Amino acid sequence: MRASPSPRDPSDPSEGASVAPPASPEWESGDADDAADPALAGPQTLQAVVPPEFAGERLDKVLAQVFGEFSRSRLRAWCEAGRVRMGDAEGQPRSKARAGARLLLQLPEEPEAAAFAPEPIELNVLWSDADLAVIDKPAGLVVHPAAGHWSGTLLNGLLARFPESAALPRAGIVHRLDKDTSGLMVVARSLAAQTDLVRQLQARSISRQYLALAWGELPAPVWVDAPIGRHPRDRLRMAVVAGGKPARTQFRALGCCRGPAGAVTALRCVLESGRTHQIRVHAQHIGLPLLGDPLYGRRGAACALRRQALHAALLRLRHPRSGEWMQWRSPVAADIAAQWGELGGDAASLDSRDWDAPSGKEAS
Question: pTM for the full model?
Answer without folding.
Answer: 0.72
